[in-house]
């Protein structure tokens, strides 16, 4: 805190951070501006550091997913890749299916009801509204595509 003990004179005694020194009003204002700028820069640095850390975390997540070995990619689908869902609607003409699905961990997607494209229209032949299924869903560009579907037991 900066307090001016004598505001009538251009050169006045100013108590600043528990020491006393003589500052002009201009010097006092410059000190206040400098301290305000330092506080602003500190806050901006802290916010950008947090944003950078979050971006790096997201990048590492995608990098780890992309870095799977070819042996891992060649492995057959296991239940861990499959997501439980309920068929709400089947549209064979459009090659689409509406599913109410649980969270899809591989896509970091929460549970919801949405329409998906289907990789192979033959998958739609074994599904009808109300069926409980397990599905494997991937992202191709901006679309989410069902690549595998099994009737749940």
Q: What is this entry, summarized?
A:
It contains three helices and eight strands; from the N terminus they run E-E-E-H-H-E-E-E-H-E-E.
Kindly describe this structure.
About 35% of the residues lie in helices and about 35% in strands. A hairpin with a 2-residue loop joins strand 2 and strand 3 (about 20-25). It has two domains: about 1-65, no CATH class; about 80-150, Copper binding periplasmic protein CusF (OB fold (Dihydrolipoamide Acetyltransferase, E2P)). The protein has a five-stranded mixed β-barrel with strand order 4-5-6-8-7. By secondary structure, the protein is an alpha+beta fold. The model is unreliable at about 70-75 (pLDDT under 50).
Keywords:
3 helices; OB fold (Dihydrolipoamide Acetyltransferase, E2P); 2 domains; 153 residues; alpha+beta; rod-shaped
Annotate the secondary structure layout.
Layout: E1 2-4, E2 11-16, E3 19-24, H1 25-66, H2 70-74, E4 83-91, E5 96-101, E6 112-118, H3 122-125, E7 132-140, E8 143-151
Parallel strand pairs: 6-8
Antiparallel strand pairs: 1-2, 2-3, 4-5, 4-7, 5-6, 7-8
């Amino acid at each position: 805190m900066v307090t001016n003990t004598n505001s009538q004179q251009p050169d006045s005694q100013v108590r600043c951070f528990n020491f006393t020194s003589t500052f002009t009003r201009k010097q006092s204002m410059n000190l206040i501006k400098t301290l305000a700028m330092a506080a602003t820069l500190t806050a901006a640095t802290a916010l950008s550091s947090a944003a950078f850390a979050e971006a790096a975390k997201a990048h590492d997540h995608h990098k780890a997913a992309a870095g799977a070995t070819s042996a891992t990619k060649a492995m057959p689908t296991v239940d861990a890749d499959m997501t439980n869902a309920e068929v709400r609607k089947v549209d064979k003409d459009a090659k689409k299916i509406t599913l109410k699905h649980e969270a899809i961990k591989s896509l970091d997607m929460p549970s919801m009801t949405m329409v998906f494209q289907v990789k192979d229209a033959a998958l739609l032949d074994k599904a009808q509204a109300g069926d409980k299924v397990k599905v494997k869903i991937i992202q191709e560009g901006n679309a989410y595509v069902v690549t595998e579907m099994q009737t749940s037991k």
